[in-house]
Every structure is written in structure tokens, then in C-alpha cells.
Write a structure and sequence with these properties.
The complex is a heterotrimer of chains A (382), B (274) and C (152).
Chain A (H helix, E strand, L loop, with lengths): L9 E4 H13 L3 E8 L2 E7 L9 E6 L2 E6 L16 H4 L3 E10 L2 E5 L8 E6 L1 H14 L7 H6 L3 E6 L10 H4 L11 E6 L4 E6 L2 H8 L4 E2 L2 H16 L10 H6 L5 H9 L5 H5 L6 E7 L5 E8 L9 E2 L2 E2 L4 H20 L9 H4 L7 H10 L12
Helix pairs in contact in A: 9-11
Chain B lengths: L9 E12 L2 E7 L12 E6 L3 E6 L10 E6 L3 H7 L6 E8 L5 H4 L4 E6 L7 H9 L7 E7 L8 H10 L3 E6 L9 E2 L16 E5 L2 H13 L7 E4 L15 E2 L2 E2 L6 E3 H8 L5
Parallel strand pairs in B: 7-8, 7-11, 8-9, 9-10, 11-12
Antiparallel strand pairs in B: 1-2, 1-6, 2-5, 3-4, 3-6, 12-15, 13-14
Chain C lengths: L2 H7 L8 H7 L3 E6 L4 E3 L7 E7 L2 E7 L3 E8 L4 E2 L13 E4 L3 E7 H10 L1 H27 L7
Antiparallel strand pairs in C: 1-8, 2-7, 3-6, 3-8, 4-5, 4-7
Helix pairs in contact in C: 3-4
The chains are: A alpha+beta (382), B alpha/beta (274), C alpha+beta (152).
Chain lengths: 382, 274, 152
Amino acid sequence: MQGTKRQPDHILNVEGLAQLLRALRADAYRLVGPTVRDGAIVHAEIRGIDDLPAGWTETQEAGTYRLVPRGDGALFGFSTAAQSYKQVFFVPRLRLLKLRRKDSSFTVEHDAPVTSRLALIGARSCDLHAIEVQDRTLLTGPFADPDYAARRSDLFIVAVQCGQSGGTCFCASMGTGPRSTAGFDLALTELFEPHRFLVQVGTEAGERVLARLPRALATESERVAAEGVVEQTAQSMGRRMDTTGIKELLYRNLEHPRWDDVAERCLGCTNCTLACPTCFCSTVEDTGDLTGESAERWRRWDSCFTLDHSYLHGGSVRTSTRSRYRQWMTHKLASWIDQFGTSGCVGCGRCITWCPVGIDITEEVAAIRRADGACSGEGGAP
Amino acid sequence: MNTAGPMTPRPVVVRNIHIESDDVVTLDLATESEAWSFQPGQFNMLYAFGVGEVPVSMSGDPSQTDRLVHTIRSVGAVTEALCRTPLGGVVGLRGPFGTPWPMDTVRGRDLVVVAGGLGLAPLRPVLYDVLRYRSDYGRISLLAGARTPEDLLFKREVERWKQQAAIDVHLSVDRAPAGWNGQVGVVTSLLSSIDISAQTVAFVCGPEVMMRFTVRELQRRRVPAERIYLSMERNMKCAVGFCGHCQLGPSFVCKDGPIFRYEQLKSLFWLPEI
Amino acid sequence: MNEREALERHPFAAGLSDPQISALLPCARRVRYRAGAVIFREGAAATSLYLIITGGVALEQHVPGKGDLALESLGPGDLLGLSWIFPGGHWLLTARATTDTDALELNARDVLQRMDLDPALGFALSKHLVAQLCQRLERVRLQRLDVYRAPK
């Protein structure tokens, strides 16, 4: 997935796409793609083109997600899947260690790392950016997470250029989409009448797979049509966020009355952090068995919205919802930049969609910006 | 770090136990042959088999490479299990982690070490270092506060330092029984009894409230923000920058701390619930 | 160090003019206490204030069954005794020298009289008294927080 040289674009028809998925399976890739499950389009393991959400789309609004049929049989005619790829690489529950008492000491065993080849089918630009954001936390610090590294080590990425923006999307504001420009092996743009896909080649691996498929060179008018699709999406974003000086904006508004306001609405349910493709907080749980002979260490997702998250002997540092929401949002949009050189937000909008009370991060930022410098209660340096 | 990954503890043997007070013990941890090295202020994650893991600062002498010394207060399930580990028993250890006290910055200057309660533990390696290379430093003062005379850590050693006069030692307790002839009052009140020069550097460790009072008092004595260093504490699950718990504004206490220059923290230090 | 120098160098008299120092000087006398000596006792009439020059003083309270408990320690530069400020006051605590202690004892009635006569002196000393009180209050507050207590 290194730098792209401009390749000619190709055209695959629907059967060609089916062959692409078969070719990847033949190359021992497990396919993870969008599919309809439990009333939502989710990322899950798929066998082939028949598992794709043909003819389905969704409406997303703050606190709302509904599957809706669409008439055209589109395979990628939705905006974002309910989840990102986070749970694929940074798994929700992971056994880190098995320990056993031996003589007076103990021994440690590790589960073998999971290194299956994965092909991501229909990956959106926001979700690809999110992987890159998580890489910075889990791979490029002083330590690398071995499980995460193994799970994302052998990827083939078939991106899809977004043909439709969702009601809560704002990737255009975050500079993370809707157009995928890098980080894929192949990128598809879904075109209709006839139903077909314009294919951009991102890597040599992509080129090699494509070479095995029946395909045509894309015409200039097909190229223009594909450009138009993603341009139309960019123009119709459901939300926007003004990110001008956002780090400084939030750092200087840590006592803004809006935090009190949002705390009145926030349930502290942790949905936003679970749905977020970049949130990486985890906790470590050590367990022992009744005999005291063996023990395990597990990692599981955690959230800064829980009281336990900041627990120190004697009490928690962040006891109020106000402080916990502030922590989440200033981390996501401000301190992340100091920590990892990038925003923690890719504008996928999931935190808005999946918030049971419809808290909208773009609106919270806008409210703080509208009353920049307002201050609730006392505080500040002496 | 070993190939097993950064979350894997290795077994170490409890070679020595010092009972410091009712609820505080010091454990000397060692393996057969390993030579350890650490810098004053750094910490390890200590694991009690099947119970859990907590961060604990090293309180020993950095020049003693055959053991790692940790002073632990029993305040929860894990620390209680660690404190109860018998002589010859095994605990898990991974580390060392974190930033050290900036010993280089102090060389040739005066140092005031302000410790509250268990806060003396991560500062003891500083004093060992200073005593070892005494002529490299200017005036060294130790101001240590504790709840009661009983709770003062490392009593015999501190008494010895006092006798040797290589360090100017001042102790104070918040409450004293009849017969206590030492100082009573908060540790910050000791600051008025020492000289502060234009070059004085301060290392402070203790409960956050105590550090806030101390910073205020140091600033009243005109010690600038860039010469005050604090050891901060936050919830910590991994110590390697993954788990997200120890964030303090833009910093991860596990890797950007625990030792911070006050100047770095200034804007957040006085904010509640940050 | 004579009495004048001792007074001039003590924080209680910081910023006072020469004439003001001279006005206070007749109220002061040099006192010395051996370690363990009682400087004043709880319940006695508070007729003096003490400016500690060297040494250390413990403020104690006798608690039945527990003995004399030290509540606060004072040292060089501190002002010992506050109950004299309002005439007719009595000491609330016992003051005991914990080490050999040098101090200036000032006659409270004389000091109050001079503060009344010279409002500028009165104001300057009042400011020092308030500052001393604030500092002591701050310390007591932190002490009351009991920050080293074992968490529940």
C-alpha cells in the first residue's frame, strides 16, 4: 500500500467483482465486508458477492439508524457500516497471558498470534484513516501491541469511494474523505446503467489480482462519472465541523459552560467510545482460579466514560459526567494531536448515530466556538 | 523488554522484607543473576499472582544492581496481596517504566526534596544518588511529612542521614502523640526553615493536594515553575501507552511521566477532575 | 545581635521605619528558654507576644488520657502567641520550647498602646498579623485534610 503511481482505471462488471472476491479467497484471504445482520449493515466475514447488502441503504441521524431498501440493487449503496474495523484488529476481548504456578515461581504462556490474511471489502476512506490513526497508538509508540500488529499485518484492501454520505458524516471537514486517495490496493466506484465498478489501482498487489480478472479499460466518460459520484457525496455531507485552531479552542475552554450543558444530556453509556473507530482505551483484568494454580490476564475495551477509568486508591479523578465528556472530546479533537500528530476524529459520525440521546460532537464544538472563552464556575490558575 | 511482549510479567523473588509501618512494607525483589538498572523516579508494574497488577515506584539505591526495591502501601486487593508475599515468595514484575527525576539538572545546584507520606519512596533513590556523588551537588534539603511519627518512612535511615549532616533533614507530622518532640504541622511549613537560592531545584512527591500546597509555597519562595518537578499519579493498567487510563491532558503519565516539570503541567494542575 | 538588630531582622517588623522600630524597642526584651521549658500555659493571661529568633516551640494542648499533644510547631521568624491581640485574653494553648530557643518578648499592652498612638505603625503591624494568621490558617486547613490518611 505504498505510494501510488497513476495507473489507468479499469472497469469490472458485477460478475467481475464476484470473481475478484473469489480470487482473493483463492489467495487464502478471509473476506471482511458489509453485510446485513440484525437490522443493520455491519462488517463481518463474507463468502462472496451474495453476502453484500444488495439493494439496501440506511438513514442515519443523531440517535437514529434505520435500514431502508433502495431500488437499484446497489451493493455498496450505504454510507458507513454500523461498526468500523476496530473490532477486527483491536479485538474487544483478548487473552494476553496464561500463567501457571510452577514450583515456587510461575510460567507464562501466550496464545499463538492471529495472522490470518484479511481482505477488507468495501472499506470507506474514513475507516481506512481510522486504522492509520490506531496504528499510531498501537504500533509506533515505544512499544508495539503484538496482537494488533499480527492481526493487521497481512491485509488486502478493496476500498469503495463513497457514493452517498450519511446523515451524521463529516469526513470532508476532517480531511479524511469521502475520496480514498491512498491506503488501498484497489478502489471501487459503483456506477449504474449498466451496473459496474470503476477500479483504481493502488498497489502492485492490487494490479496483480486485477490482471487475473475479466476487465475493460475505463473510458474518459466513466472516469468523469466516477469523479462525479464522490464529488456529489462530498457536497452532501450530513454534518460539518469547523476545525480551525480546534486544539487551542478546546484547551482554552476547559471550563466552558457547555460541558455542564452536555453533562445534563449525556448518560455516560460509553456507546460513543465503543462505536468510535479510533478510541483505544482498554483495561487489563487479571483473574485466578480457585485452586490458585493458574491465572489469566485479559485485555478488554474500556471507556473514559466509566467512573472506574480514572480510579486511584481512594476515589476517581473524574467523578462527574461533565469531566468525563470533557476528557473524551478534548482527547479526541485536541490532545490526540499533541499525542499522535493527528486528530483522533475521522468524521465517520458513528458517535452521533449511536448516542442514545443524540449528542452531536459537531454541535458541541460549534457551541463552544460560539461562546469561546465563556467560563462556568471558578477555576483557572491562581 | 522481552520477546513475550510488553504486557508479560516475569517472576522475581522476594529477598527481603522491611516492615515500615502498619500498612507499608518494602520488598527487595531479585532473580538469581540478573543485573538491574533504573533511574530515580521510575516505576515497575508489580503483579500478584491471580489478583492483579499495580504500578509501584522503585525506592531503592540505583547503584545496587542485584535487586529492585519497592515500598508498597496496602490500600487494595493487589497491594495487600503484594504486601503479604512471604520471604522467598514470587511476584511478577515488568519495567522499568517512566521518566526519571532530572538528576543532571540538579548537578552543581541546591536541591530541596519535599515528600509527603509515601511520596518519600520514589524520592529515596534521589537521595541515594546525591549521597553517592555528594560533591556534585550544592545544599541538599529533605523535607518529609507524614500523618504521624509512626508513619514516617525509612526512619532509621533518615535518622542516619540527619546525623551525617550530608543532607539537611527536616521532618514534620500532621498529628503527634504526647512525647513527640519533633515538628508538628504540614510539610510546607518546613520550607520556611531552609534557605532557597536562585539556583534551587525542587523535587516534590506526595498526594496531589499536598503537592498543590507545596507548589504554592515554593512559588512564594520564588522557585520558578521550570525548576519545580512533580511526580504525578493516575490510574494505570498497561504502563506502555496503550490503555489510555493515565492520561493527564496531552500527557500519558506512564511514558511522558510520572516525573513532570511543573511548568509543563501548570495549565492543568489547578483544574479539578482533569 | 542586640535587641534592636533582632527586632529589625524579624519578619514581624519587616518594613518598619527606624522611628517605628525605636518606638517598639522599649516594649521588647530578650528571652531565652531551655529545651522543654514552658513559655506560657493554657489558661494564663495573655500579656506578651514572642518573636522567635532561633529554636523551636510546640503549641500543646493537654488532652485528658492522652497527655500533652503538640498541635503545631513554630520556628525562627514566626510570631508566637495571638491571644494578646484583644486585651483580657487568655492563652488557648501551652507553648513549650522543643529546643533551646531565643526570642524577643514584647509586652502586649505596650505594643497595643503604640499601635493606637501611631496608626501607621498600627496598620503595618496589623498587616503582618493578618499575614501570619492567613499562613497559619492555610497550614491548619491542610493539616485538617489529613491527606496521608489510608483511603477507605
